[in-house]
Specification:
heterodimer, A: 7-stranded antiparallel beta sheet, 13 helices, disordered C terminus, B: about 375 residues, 10 helices, binds protoporphyrin IX containing FE
């Protein structure tokens, strides 16, 4: 290590107004223990914290570019189908689950270990600092970054007492020892810094709690329909270790109506403007005590321990199917699923109880499009497409199938798809039988299968029912983190020393010196103001040359200076490194270069 | 069919568009004025404000003061960042109660003279540029305000509106620094340049008519979260420009010390000579970044609270969330770097540039190239 390195490190200590860990360069001690200690020190060093932070940001990138299972499993499937070559490698690297992957977790766990290893000792050290008096004045104050001095005829003790009073009035922690006062202010910086880092743990705890004890379910409800929060009624449910289907909060609601409004003019035509679900709900076991409520996007309804969110919406045509004898074999509102932003929707009607035709058991299936605003004619290639998401001119387009729906096989079926393997599409005049219906219209099916009518339509809405504890912990962590940051970044920690000594000529030399974080220029002004105030009690003698200037320029006091720095440093940090005194160009004064 | 009365005042919307167009033009003029300032400024002798000069100024100031009589006077020696020392003198007139600062801050005054150098013509252009910038700023802010009034909502519901507001805060950050009396006219060119580009992009590529918002944005969190994000954007940009200039000046100083002629990237030496000293630039960029970081933290947290209300989960690693997080972590790394031996200065500067690049990508890149849940993009 060269001379300059030594000096740099020594000055680093002299400037220490924070308990940031000091990086060490090589293993200390011997054998395994030494290496372990070295590894631990490395892990809890600022340099490694910096590198880990950098790695964390890098590691977060792939998850924003590759579809993630946790967000959109369907998109992941499509992506995998489109990139079959690379998919196995991606799967092995957990690139579809980046944020729960081994490598991502490893980085943030290491970071938090590093943080704990850094924060705990720093906290104790800081408590020690708070309990001890501010570090005593170094022997040679001229070496401090800001310095002022003058001669006075006032008594040294009186001058020092006045300085202590003034510093205390400025809310410094001041401590008088002999002929000097040591004072320090701005502890909130360190408090804020520790608070910020500690609250990161609160955030993490909130996250962990949420992921261990939350559950979320989805449910589609048609206008006029109802929902009870039980497993059998949910369309899907994802729980966690401590929140299972049996823990679902008891409540339910009825969807009385759904309002949707859209932009009708301009370049944003068709943009949604309002979605509101009008419901009546109950909380607890008694479904007869109903309260009216509204759920909007951004405005979920909290019922019991769950929140109900409005997620999606669409149309459900009301359909009646009659057999050849005119008997009603099917009547229901069938939710169709939106395919585009104009709510072109597709769906199927499964008539499982059609009964017999020509002595044989038959089932009917219909496949269709619902268009809230239908064009006059469909494009040849595009097929039926809605022009606008609102129901300005609704139409239902249907084709029909007969045969076996496959629903009796017992295996669960997708209600939005027909299993065509045992179905035959009905034909008319040698072509596929197809119809476009307006509300109220009906269609007589070919081959004497009876009729289907499009009675009208209802709207439906999907809701997400979510139970997530731990939010308040995370929020508290977040708020404390911000408060801590503000303290840490806006408060200056600084020290001021005042010494008054009798000089050989019988007068009193008053010396002031200050030390602050390098980013601040305010310390000089603060010191100047203090000095001006102090001159009330210790007026400067009329001199051409301000006293102390010769000392400030001189280098004669080398040994003493080194000791002084050592002393000042010793309060917060390890051993002082001897360094040549050279106030003008010493890196001590210049921590940034 | 449920028709919504459009709820848009077309006159105000139109006026807003005109304001934004004019602001773009005025910023462009300000940009040219600044270019003239830099060009003519290079012709004048480049004088550095040296320590000697500073103390001469002090002496002059002191001489101008009434004879102190029983005045209290204190001179503080300040070790400067570049190794030299400066002094700061305070005088209090007896009985007057007030203290008078006779010299500025205790910083080494080795900053360059600014874009205009010592040329009066350049200085005139600089003043014109600042006036034009103020005018452009008022038009720009007016445009944003009128856009908001035309629909009676916060005017940042899509990328066009967001960009217009972003330009306001970018130029605003610069004007605030000027108004605080900081000698930052050298920041004028980067500021109006970026404002011009942002507004040009907004009016040409990102434009959408003034309309009401999609339900996903019906939330008071729009006001809180997005306002904070916009302010962060403007201030981060100011810090970015300062950091970039710091890095340029730093390599110029190194080249000069090594006896090489000219600046890095073939930029003439006189440009760097007129910039503030590295220490000044470095300090300013750190201060801005450090000021904004808590606000950026708040922005992300406000976004998370909003997400909780809108989607049921406060954090889902949506691309926008992810890139906000990445930006935040890189800025945190930058702040760490500033406090870590061996990482100060240049390396920390690179981190600050990287952090701003992440911020920009989060805004343009994620909105345009990555599909997520954030619905305000409204491009095309
Ligand atoms: C979990 C990730 C972390 C984040 C997001 C983070 C963030 C921050 C931020 C934003 C600051 C700036 C505030 C200031 O300058 O006072 C800071 C400062 C600091 N951090 Fe961290 N930090 C993290 C981990 C760590 C770790 C692991 C350590 C210990 C090795 C550490 C030690 C410090 C220290 C000592 C400072 C104060 C530096 C100074 O005195 O200026 N941090 N941190």
């Amino acid at each position: 290590m060269s001379d300059t390195d030594l000096r740099a490190q020594g000055s680093e200590d002299a400037e220490r107004l924070s308990s940031a860990p000091v990086d060490s360069d090589g293993p200390t001690g011997i054998g395994v223990a030494g290496w372990l200690r070295w590894t631990w020190r490395q892990l809890t060093s600022m340099r490694v914290a910096l590198i880990l932070l950098f790695m964390l940001s890098l590691a977060a990138i792939p998850g924003s570019l590759i579809p993630q299972t946790s967000q959109n499993a369907f998109k992941v499937q499509t992506w995998k189908a489109a990139h079959q070559g690379i998919t196995p490698l991606y799967e092995k690297l957990q690139l579809f689950d980046v944020y729960s992957s081994v490598w991502f977790s490893a980085i943030y766990i290491l970071l938090f270990i590093s943080l704990a290893g850094c924060i705990v000792p720093r906290t104790w050290q800081f408590v020690g600092v708070l309990r001890a008096a501010p570090p005593a004045a170094p022997a040679n104050l001229t070496r401090m970054p800001v310095y002022a001095a003058w001669r006075t005829s006032a008594d040294p003790q009186a001058a020092v007492a006045a300085a202590e009073r003034l510093l205390k009035a400025r809310r410094f922690r001041a401590h008088r020892g002999g002929t000097a006062v040591a004072a320090e202010k701005g502890y909130l910086r360190e408090v804020g810094n520790l608070l910020f880092h500690l609250s990161l743990f609160a955030l993490l705890a909130g996250f962990a709690w949420a992921s261990l004890a939350s559950g979320q379910g989805g449910k589609l409800v048609v206008e006029g329909g109802g929902y009870t929060n039980t497993m059998t009624q949910l369309d899907d449910f994802s729980g966690s270790a401590f929140y299972q289907a049996s823990d679902l909060d008891p409540f339910g609601f009825k969807l009385d109506g759904f309002t949707d409004k859209y932009q009708t003019t301009g370049d944003q035509i068709g943009s949604a403007r309002e979605f509101t679900a009008h419901i009546r709900y109950w909380n607890g076991a008694d479904p007869s005590k109903l309260t009216a409520g509204e759920i909007q996007v951004n405005h979920p309804l909290e019922i019991g321990g769950s929140k109900v969110f409005l997620i999606g919406h669409g149309y459900a045509p009301v359909i009646t199917v009659k057999d050849a004898s005119g008997k009603v074999v099917y009547h229901d509102a069938v939710p169709f699923l939106p395919q585009d932003s104009n709510l072109t929707s597709t769906g199927v009607v499964k008539v499982g109880d059609y009964g017999q035709k020509d002595g044989q058991k038959v089932q009917l299936g219909f496949q269709g499009f619902f268009l809230p605003t239908a064009p006059a004619n469909f494009g040849v290639n595009t097929g039926p497409r809605s022009l606008f998401p609102g129901d300005a001119d609704p139409a239902l387009v249907l084709t029909a199938y007969a045969g076996d729906l496959g629903t009796d096989a017992g295996s669960p079926q997708n209600v939005y798809q027909l299993n065509l393997s045992h179905l035959t599409q009905l034909q008319q005049d040698g072509q596929i039988a197809k119809v476009k219906l307006k509300p109220g219209e009906g269609w007589t099916l070919p081959d004497n299968y009876g009729s289907i009518s499009f009675d009208g339509y209802k709207k439906w809405a999907t809701f997400s029912v979510s139970h997530r504890p731990g939010n308040s912990v995370a929020l508290a962590g977040a708020v404390l983190a911000i408060l801590g940051l503000v303290g840490s970044l806006f408060v200056q920690r600084r020290r001021i020393w005042v010494r008054a000594v009798t000089t050989p000529d019988g007068r009193t030399l008053v010396e002031l010196a200050g030390l602050a974080r390098s980013e601040s220029a305010k310390i000089a002004e603060e010191l100047a103001e203090l000095a001006v105030d102090l001159q009330d009690d210790a007026p400067a003698l009329d001199e051409d040359e301000p006293a102390g200037a010769d000392e400030a320029a001189g280098d004669e006091d080398d040994e003493a200076a080194d000791e002084a720095v050592g002393e000042a440093v010793h309060e917060t940090a390890g051993p002082a490194v001897p360094e040549p005194a050279d106030p003008g160009s010493d890196p001590a004064d210049n921590p940034k270069e | 069919m449920s028709l919504l009365t459009s709820g848009v005042n077309p006159h105000l919307a139109d006026l807003s568009n005109k304001c934004i167009w004019s602001a773009t033009g005025v910023y462009a003029l300000a940009m040219f004025a600044h270019m003239f300032e830099w060009t003519f400024g290079s012709k004048g002798a480049v004088a550095r404000r040296s320590v000697e000069q500073a103390s001469l100024a002090e002496a002059a100031a002191e001489a101008a003061l009434p004879v102190p009589g029983k005045a209290k006077k204190v001179t503080v020696t300040v070790a400067a960042a570049d190794g030299g020392t400066t002094t700061l003198t305070r005088t209090a007139l007896a009985g007057a109660g007030a203290t008078v600062v006779t010299s500025g801050r205790g910083e080494a005054a080795v900053d360059g003279p600014g874009a205009a150098g010592t040329s009066e013509r350049a200085d005139l252009f600089g003043r014109i540029a600042v006036s034009l910038t103020v005018l452009g700023f008022m038009l720009n802010a007016g445009g944003v305000l009128l856009r908001g009034l035309s629909v009676l909502r916060w005017p940042w519901g899509n990328m066009y509106e967001f960009s217009c507001a972003f330009a306001v805060t970018m130029v605003g950050a610069y004007l605030v620094l000027l108004a605080l009396g900081k000698p930052v006219r050298w920041l004028g060119l980067p500021a109006v340049l970026a404002a011009c580009l942002t507004l040009g992009m907004a009016t040409s590529v990102l434009y959408t008519d003034s309309e009401q918002l999609v339900p996903a944005l019906h939330s008071y969190w729009l006001a809180i979260h997005v306002t904070a994000a916009i302010i962060c954007g403007g201030a981060f940009y100011a810090a970015f420009a300062t950091t970039a200039l710091y890095l340029g000046r730093e390599s110029y100083d190194k080249r000069k010390a090594a006896g090489l002629a000219g600046g890095p990237f073939r930029i003439p030496a006189s440009v760097f000579e007129r910039l503030p000293a590295t220490a000044t630039l470095d300090k300013l960029s750190y201060r801005i970044n450090a000021m904004v970081f808590p606000l950026w933290t708040f922005t992300i947290i406000a976004g998370a609270i909003w997400a909780e209300a809108a989607w049921g989960k406060y954090w889902e690693w949506d691309p926008k969330e992810t890139w906000s997080f990445i930006t935040w972590v890189v800025y945190a790394a930058y702040l760490h770097a500033r406090a870590t031996a061996g990482w100060k200065g240049r390396k920390a500067g690179y981190l600050a540039l990287l952090a701003f690049a992440c911020f920009l990508f989060n805004y343009y890149g994620v909105n345009i190239f990555v599909t997520g849940k954030h619905s305000y993009a409204g491009v095309g």
